[in-house]
Amino acid sequence: MIEKVAVVGLGLIGGSIAKALRKYTDIDVIGVDVDTKTLDKALREGTISEAFREINFALEVDVLFICTPVGKIADNVKNIYPHLKKGCIITDVGSTKKVVMEEIEKFLPLDFYFIGGHPMAGTEKAGYDYSHPDLFVDSFYFLVPSDSVEEGILEIFVKEIIKKIGAKPVIVDYNEHDRIVGVISHVPHIISTTLSNFAHRECKDALKYAAGGFKDTTRIALSQTEMWKDIIFSNKEVLLELLKSYKDLIEDFIQHLEEEDEDFLVDFLNRAREYRKNIEV
Ligand code: NAP
Q: How far, in Å, from the CA of 130 to the mean position of ligand 1?
Protein backbone atom coordinates (compact mmCIF):
# COMPACT_ATOMS: atom_id res chain seq x y z
CA MET A 1 0.00 0.00 0.00
CA ILE A 2 1.29 3.43 -0.97
CA GLU A 3 1.20 5.79 2.02
CA LYS A 4 3.90 8.38 1.40
CA VAL A 5 5.20 9.95 -1.81
CA ALA A 6 7.92 12.53 -2.55
CA VAL A 7 7.58 14.82 -5.57
CA VAL A 8 10.82 16.35 -6.85
CA GLY A 9 10.23 19.44 -9.02
CA LEU A 10 7.00 21.19 -8.02
CA GLY A 11 6.38 22.84 -11.39
CA LEU A 12 3.40 22.52 -13.71
CA ILE A 13 3.43 18.71 -13.75
CA GLY A 14 4.98 17.98 -10.31
CA GLY A 15 2.71 20.55 -8.65
CA SER A 16 -0.30 19.00 -10.39
CA ILE A 17 0.73 15.47 -9.30
CA ALA A 18 1.07 16.69 -5.69
CA LYS A 19 -2.28 18.53 -5.80
CA ALA A 20 -4.03 15.55 -7.44
CA LEU A 21 -2.66 13.15 -4.80
CA ARG A 22 -3.88 15.51 -2.07
CA LYS A 23 -7.31 15.83 -3.66
CA TYR A 24 -7.97 12.22 -4.71
CA THR A 25 -5.99 10.05 -2.23
CA ASP A 26 -4.97 9.87 1.44
CA ILE A 27 -1.31 9.65 0.47
CA ASP A 28 1.06 11.94 2.38
CA VAL A 29 3.00 14.11 -0.11
CA ILE A 30 6.33 15.74 0.56
CA GLY A 31 7.81 18.27 -1.87
CA VAL A 32 11.34 18.85 -3.12
CA ASP A 33 12.24 21.86 -5.26
CA VAL A 34 15.21 24.15 -5.84
CA ASP A 35 12.96 27.20 -5.38
CA THR A 36 12.15 28.10 -1.76
CA LYS A 37 9.23 30.36 -2.78
CA THR A 38 7.55 27.43 -4.57
CA LEU A 39 8.06 25.20 -1.52
CA ASP A 40 6.64 27.87 0.82
CA LYS A 41 3.57 28.32 -1.35
CA ALA A 42 2.96 24.57 -1.66
CA LEU A 43 3.24 24.22 2.15
CA ARG A 44 0.93 27.20 2.76
CA GLU A 45 -1.68 25.79 0.39
CA GLY A 46 -1.48 22.36 2.04
CA THR A 47 -0.34 20.68 -1.19
CA ILE A 48 2.64 19.13 0.63
CA SER A 49 3.19 18.25 4.29
CA GLU A 50 6.97 18.78 4.32
CA ALA A 51 9.39 20.70 2.07
CA PHE A 52 13.04 20.17 1.18
CA ARG A 53 15.49 21.85 -1.19
CA GLU A 54 17.48 18.63 -1.56
CA ILE A 55 17.49 15.07 -0.30
CA ASN A 56 20.62 14.18 1.67
CA PHE A 57 19.01 12.06 4.40
CA ALA A 58 17.11 8.76 4.61
CA LEU A 59 13.76 9.31 2.90
CA GLU A 60 10.98 6.96 4.02
CA VAL A 61 8.69 7.12 1.00
CA ASP A 62 6.99 4.40 -1.02
CA VAL A 63 7.13 6.31 -4.32
CA LEU A 64 9.49 8.98 -5.64
CA PHE A 65 8.20 11.15 -8.50
CA ILE A 66 10.88 12.99 -10.49
CA CYS A 67 9.18 15.93 -12.24
CA THR A 68 12.22 17.97 -13.32
CA PRO A 69 13.25 18.77 -16.93
CA VAL A 70 14.26 15.70 -18.99
CA GLY A 71 17.99 16.58 -18.92
CA LYS A 72 18.03 16.42 -15.10
CA ILE A 73 15.99 13.26 -14.45
CA ALA A 74 18.79 10.65 -14.53
CA ASP A 75 21.03 12.77 -12.27
CA ASN A 76 18.15 13.34 -9.84
CA VAL A 77 17.56 9.58 -9.61
CA LYS A 78 21.31 8.91 -9.19
CA ASN A 79 21.60 11.43 -6.34
CA ILE A 80 18.43 10.46 -4.49
CA TYR A 81 18.06 6.66 -4.76
CA PRO A 82 20.82 5.88 -2.17
CA HIS A 83 18.60 7.67 0.43
CA LEU A 84 15.51 5.58 -0.36
CA LYS A 85 14.40 2.29 1.19
CA LYS A 86 14.77 -0.84 -0.94
CA GLY A 87 11.62 -1.68 -2.88
CA CYS A 88 10.76 1.97 -3.46
CA ILE A 89 9.02 2.78 -6.75
CA ILE A 90 10.82 5.53 -8.66
CA THR A 91 8.97 7.19 -11.50
CA ASP A 92 9.36 10.25 -13.69
CA VAL A 93 7.06 12.35 -15.89
CA GLY A 94 9.58 13.19 -18.63
CA SER A 95 8.40 13.64 -22.19
CA THR A 96 10.93 11.16 -23.65
CA LYS A 97 11.79 7.77 -22.26
CA LYS A 98 14.50 5.78 -24.09
CA VAL A 99 17.62 7.90 -23.44
CA VAL A 100 16.70 8.62 -19.81
CA MET A 101 15.69 5.03 -18.97
CA GLU A 102 18.78 3.51 -20.60
CA GLU A 103 20.91 5.84 -18.47
CA ILE A 104 19.02 4.99 -15.26
CA GLU A 105 19.15 1.24 -15.93
CA LYS A 106 22.98 1.50 -16.00
CA PHE A 107 23.22 2.40 -12.31
CA LEU A 108 19.92 1.68 -10.51
CA PRO A 109 20.08 -1.54 -8.43
CA LEU A 110 17.38 -4.12 -9.23
CA ASP A 111 15.76 -3.78 -5.80
CA PHE A 112 14.44 -0.32 -6.76
CA TYR A 113 11.58 -0.32 -9.25
CA PHE A 114 11.78 2.28 -12.02
CA ILE A 115 8.53 2.90 -13.89
CA GLY A 116 8.94 5.53 -16.59
CA GLY A 117 5.87 7.75 -16.78
CA HIS A 118 4.54 10.43 -19.10
CA PRO A 119 1.17 12.08 -18.53
CA MET A 120 -0.35 13.29 -21.78
CA ALA A 121 -1.54 16.50 -20.17
CA GLY A 122 -0.02 19.92 -19.77
CA THR A 123 0.10 23.36 -21.27
CA GLU A 124 2.65 25.80 -22.68
CA LYS A 125 2.76 27.41 -19.21
CA ALA A 126 5.40 26.44 -16.64
CA GLY A 127 5.65 26.54 -12.86
CA TYR A 128 3.71 25.66 -9.73
CA ASP A 129 1.31 28.60 -10.17
CA TYR A 130 -0.22 26.90 -13.22
CA SER A 131 -0.51 23.45 -11.63
CA HIS A 132 -3.96 21.97 -11.13
CA PRO A 133 -5.31 18.90 -9.28
CA ASP A 134 -7.55 17.93 -12.21
CA LEU A 135 -4.87 18.20 -14.90
CA PHE A 136 -4.77 14.42 -15.43
CA VAL A 137 -8.49 13.67 -15.34
CA ASP A 138 -9.41 11.65 -18.46
CA SER A 139 -5.88 12.02 -19.86
CA PHE A 140 -3.79 9.15 -21.15
CA TYR A 141 -0.77 8.36 -18.97
CA PHE A 142 2.07 6.37 -20.59
CA LEU A 143 3.86 3.90 -18.32
CA VAL A 144 7.13 2.22 -19.29
CA PRO A 145 8.13 -0.28 -16.59
CA SER A 146 11.79 -1.35 -16.42
CA ASP A 147 12.45 -5.08 -16.78
CA SER A 148 12.93 -5.47 -13.01
CA VAL A 149 9.41 -4.23 -12.22
CA GLU A 150 7.19 -7.13 -11.23
CA GLU A 151 3.58 -7.22 -12.43
CA GLY A 152 2.24 -6.77 -8.86
CA ILE A 153 4.29 -3.61 -8.31
CA LEU A 154 2.98 -2.05 -11.52
CA GLU A 155 -0.59 -3.00 -10.58
CA ILE A 156 -0.31 -1.27 -7.19
CA PHE A 157 1.12 1.90 -8.79
CA VAL A 158 -1.63 1.98 -11.41
CA LYS A 159 -4.45 1.26 -8.94
CA GLU A 160 -3.37 3.49 -6.07
CA ILE A 161 -2.02 6.46 -8.02
CA ILE A 162 -2.59 6.64 -11.76
CA LYS A 163 -6.27 5.68 -11.77
CA LYS A 164 -6.99 7.59 -8.55
CA ILE A 165 -5.85 10.88 -10.11
CA GLY A 166 -8.24 10.22 -12.99
CA ALA A 167 -5.69 9.26 -15.65
CA LYS A 168 -5.98 6.41 -18.18
CA PRO A 169 -2.84 4.22 -18.03
CA VAL A 170 -1.25 2.98 -21.26
CA ILE A 171 1.62 0.50 -20.88
CA VAL A 172 4.21 0.63 -23.68
CA ASP A 173 7.94 0.12 -24.23
CA TYR A 174 10.23 3.11 -24.58
CA ASN A 175 10.73 2.82 -28.36
CA GLU A 176 6.98 2.76 -28.93
CA HIS A 177 6.48 5.67 -26.53
CA ASP A 178 9.14 7.88 -28.12
CA ARG A 179 7.76 7.30 -31.61
CA ILE A 180 4.15 8.00 -30.58
CA VAL A 181 5.02 11.25 -28.81
CA GLY A 182 7.41 12.14 -31.65
CA VAL A 183 4.42 12.06 -34.02
CA ILE A 184 1.77 13.72 -31.86
CA SER A 185 3.81 16.08 -29.69
CA HIS A 186 7.45 16.70 -30.67
CA VAL A 187 7.10 17.13 -34.47
CA PRO A 188 4.02 19.37 -33.95
CA HIS A 189 6.08 21.42 -31.52
CA ILE A 190 8.89 21.83 -34.04
CA ILE A 191 6.38 22.75 -36.75
CA SER A 192 4.73 25.30 -34.46
CA THR A 193 8.08 26.96 -33.70
CA THR A 194 9.07 26.78 -37.38
CA LEU A 195 5.81 28.48 -38.34
CA SER A 196 6.39 31.28 -35.87
CA ASN A 197 9.95 31.85 -37.16
CA PHE A 198 8.78 31.50 -40.77
CA ALA A 199 6.06 34.15 -40.40
CA HIS A 200 8.50 36.56 -38.79
CA ARG A 201 11.11 35.95 -41.50
CA GLU A 202 8.67 36.27 -44.42
CA CYS A 203 6.67 39.28 -43.27
CA LYS A 204 6.95 40.34 -39.66
CA ASP A 205 4.30 43.03 -40.15
CA ALA A 206 1.79 40.26 -40.92
CA LEU A 207 2.01 38.99 -37.35
CA LYS A 208 -0.01 41.89 -36.00
CA TYR A 209 -3.00 40.69 -38.05
CA ALA A 210 -2.74 37.09 -36.82
CA ALA A 211 -6.10 35.63 -35.79
CA GLY A 212 -7.42 32.28 -34.52
CA GLY A 213 -5.74 29.99 -37.05
CA PHE A 214 -2.24 31.33 -36.59
CA LYS A 215 -2.68 31.63 -32.84
CA ASP A 216 -3.94 28.02 -32.55
CA THR A 217 -1.15 26.55 -34.64
CA THR A 218 1.61 28.49 -32.85
CA ARG A 219 0.33 28.38 -29.24
CA ILE A 220 2.85 25.72 -28.24
CA ALA A 221 5.72 27.86 -29.57
CA LEU A 222 5.15 29.81 -26.32
CA SER A 223 6.53 26.86 -24.30
CA GLN A 224 9.75 26.92 -22.28
CA THR A 225 12.98 26.70 -24.31
CA GLU A 226 14.89 24.82 -21.61
CA MET A 227 12.31 22.06 -21.38
CA TRP A 228 11.96 21.65 -25.16
CA LYS A 229 15.70 21.70 -25.83
CA ASP A 230 16.01 18.62 -23.60
CA ILE A 231 13.02 16.89 -25.18
CA ILE A 232 14.22 17.44 -28.76
CA PHE A 233 17.81 16.33 -28.07
CA SER A 234 16.73 13.26 -26.13
CA ASN A 235 14.44 12.10 -28.97
CA LYS A 236 16.82 13.15 -31.76
CA GLU A 237 16.96 9.89 -33.71
CA VAL A 238 13.19 9.48 -33.88
CA LEU A 239 12.67 13.17 -34.71
CA LEU A 240 15.19 13.22 -37.55
CA GLU A 241 13.45 10.27 -39.18
CA LEU A 242 9.98 11.78 -38.71
CA LEU A 243 11.01 15.25 -39.90
CA LYS A 244 12.48 13.77 -43.10
CA SER A 245 9.20 11.98 -43.70
CA TYR A 246 7.33 15.27 -43.04
CA LYS A 247 9.62 17.07 -45.50
CA ASP A 248 8.73 14.43 -48.15
CA LEU A 249 5.06 15.17 -47.57
CA ILE A 250 5.60 18.93 -48.04
CA GLU A 251 7.67 18.34 -51.19
CA ASP A 252 4.95 16.09 -52.56
CA PHE A 253 2.39 18.80 -51.79
CA ILE A 254 4.51 21.45 -53.56
CA GLN A 255 4.88 19.27 -56.64
CA HIS A 256 1.11 18.71 -56.92
CA LEU A 257 0.46 22.41 -56.40
CA GLU A 258 2.90 23.29 -59.18
CA GLU A 259 1.00 20.87 -61.41
CA GLU A 260 -2.29 22.46 -60.32
CA ASP A 261 -3.53 19.01 -59.36
CA GLU A 262 -6.93 19.90 -57.92
CA ASP A 263 -7.95 16.28 -57.21
CA PHE A 264 -4.85 15.79 -55.07
CA LEU A 265 -5.52 18.98 -53.12
CA VAL A 266 -9.19 18.13 -52.47
CA ASP A 267 -8.29 14.61 -51.35
CA PHE A 268 -5.43 15.94 -49.15
CA LEU A 269 -7.68 18.43 -47.36
CA ASN A 270 -10.57 15.93 -47.02
CA ARG A 271 -8.37 13.23 -45.57
CA ALA A 272 -6.79 15.63 -43.08
CA ARG A 273 -10.23 16.72 -41.85
CA GLU A 274 -11.40 13.10 -41.44
CA TYR A 275 -8.26 12.09 -39.50
CA ARG A 276 -8.57 15.17 -37.27
CA LYS A 277 -12.28 14.41 -36.58
CA ASN A 278 -11.28 11.04 -35.10
CA ILE A 279 -9.57 12.71 -32.15
CA GLU A 280 -11.80 12.64 -29.10
CA VAL A 281 -12.50 16.10 -27.69
P1 NAP B 1 8.26 23.26 -14.88
O2 NAP B 1 6.91 23.84 -14.65
O3 NAP B 1 9.38 24.16 -15.29
O4 NAP B 1 8.68 22.46 -13.54
C5 NAP B 1 9.95 21.95 -13.27
C6 NAP B 1 10.19 22.19 -11.79
O7 NAP B 1 11.36 21.48 -11.38
C8 NAP B 1 10.43 23.66 -11.46
O9 NAP B 1 9.75 24.00 -10.27
C10 NAP B 1 11.95 23.71 -11.27
O11 NAP B 1 12.37 24.78 -10.45
C12 NAP B 1 12.17 22.37 -10.61
N13 NAP B 1 13.53 21.87 -10.67
C14 NAP B 1 14.43 22.00 -11.67
N15 NAP B 1 15.56 21.32 -11.35
C16 NAP B 1 15.37 20.76 -10.14
C17 NAP B 1 16.16 19.96 -9.27
N18 NAP B 1 17.38 19.57 -9.61
N19 NAP B 1 15.62 19.56 -8.07
C20 NAP B 1 14.38 19.93 -7.72
N21 NAP B 1 13.58 20.71 -8.50
C22 NAP B 1 14.07 21.11 -9.69
O23 NAP B 1 8.20 22.11 -15.98
P24 NAP B 1 7.03 21.05 -16.28
O25 NAP B 1 6.25 21.53 -17.44
O26 NAP B 1 6.34 20.71 -15.00
O27 NAP B 1 7.90 19.83 -16.80
C28 NAP B 1 8.49 18.91 -15.90
C29 NAP B 1 8.64 17.57 -16.60
O30 NAP B 1 7.36 17.16 -17.09
C31 NAP B 1 9.59 17.61 -17.81
O32 NAP B 1 10.41 16.46 -17.77
C33 NAP B 1 8.64 17.56 -19.01
O34 NAP B 1 9.23 16.89 -20.10
C35 NAP B 1 7.46 16.77 -18.44
N36 NAP B 1 6.15 17.03 -19.06
C37 NAP B 1 5.75 18.30 -19.31
C38 NAP B 1 4.49 18.51 -19.87
C39 NAP B 1 3.99 19.90 -20.17
O40 NAP B 1 3.05 20.06 -20.93
N41 NAP B 1 4.59 20.93 -19.60
C42 NAP B 1 3.64 17.42 -20.13
C43 NAP B 1 4.07 16.13 -19.81
C44 NAP B 1 5.34 15.94 -19.28
P45 NAP B 1 12.86 26.14 -11.21
O46 NAP B 1 11.70 26.61 -12.02
O47 NAP B 1 13.22 27.04 -10.06
O48 NAP B 1 14.05 25.72 -12.06
A: 12
